[in-house]
Design goal:
0% strand; mainly alpha; single chain; 3 helices; 66% helix
């Protein structure tokens, strides 16, 4: 099996944008985790808070 660059799928800008947004949210959620002293058990709370901070209100999350 060869890695032929001509056979690679072109990047979809929407997919790339989603990936960048997800990475930004992931970084912010980790910052929140660290700020709490790396206390486990708040991962969903941290993710949601990071998402709201970065994307905006919950209504905007649904519309996006």
């Amino acid at each position: 099996m060869t890695n032929d660059p001509s056979k690679k799928k072109p990047k979809n800008s929407a997919t790339e944008s989603h990936t960048n947004l997800e990475e930004e949210i992931r970084r912010r959620a980790y910052e929140l985790y660290e700020a709490r002293g790396c206390e486990d058990g708040h991962d969903l709370e941290d993710w949601y808070r990071a998402e709201v901070e970065i994307v905006g209100t919950t209504e905007e999350l649904v519309a996006a």
